[in-house]
Every structure is written in C-alpha cells, then in structure tokens.
Design brief:
The chain is 82% helix and 0% strand. By secondary structure, the chain is mainly alpha-helical.
Length: 80
C-alpha cells in the first residue's frame, strides 16, 4: 500500500511539473518572434520542445522532455 501512495504522489508531482514547464516554454516562445509558435506549442504539446530548441530555450526544452519521460514512466508503473 505505501508503494502505491508513493507512485501516486510522484505521478502527481511529475504531471504538475511537466504542465508548469510546458506553460513556461510556451510563454517563452510567445515572447520571441515568430509569436505564433508559442500558441501552436501550447495547443500541440509535442511541438513545444522542437520550437524551444530552435528558439534557444534549451534548458526549458530539455526539462520538458525529461519531465514527459518521467511522467510516462510513472504512469506505466502505476498501471503495471
């Protein structure tokens, strides 16, 4: 039972961190030209790190990828 609680909390934290980073990355893209990339990245999530690397937002983009992988791994662990 404690393992389930740990996985649930970790899953919640990973999702919250990923969503926060996604919004921060989209806002960062909105502040740079062309601004349409920020809107598209907010709607089509997988494009966010692609546009981010192109706009030299490397740290946010790399963090986005790491957090997305962590979330997927924890999600798979939760349903295993």
């Amino acid at each position: 039972m404690p393992t389930d609680l740990i996985v649930t909390v970790a899953l919640s934290v990973a999702l919250a961190a990923w969503v926060t980073d996604h919004v921060a990355l989209s806002v960062g893209l909105l502040r740079r030209k062309p601004r349409w990339r920020g809107v598209v990245a907010l709607i089509v999530a997988p494009l966010a790190p692609v546009f981010g690397f192109g706009a030299r937002l490397r740290l946010r983009s790399a963090l986005w990828i790491v957090l997305a992988i962590a979330y997927v791994a924890l999600r798979l662990r939760a349903y295993a």
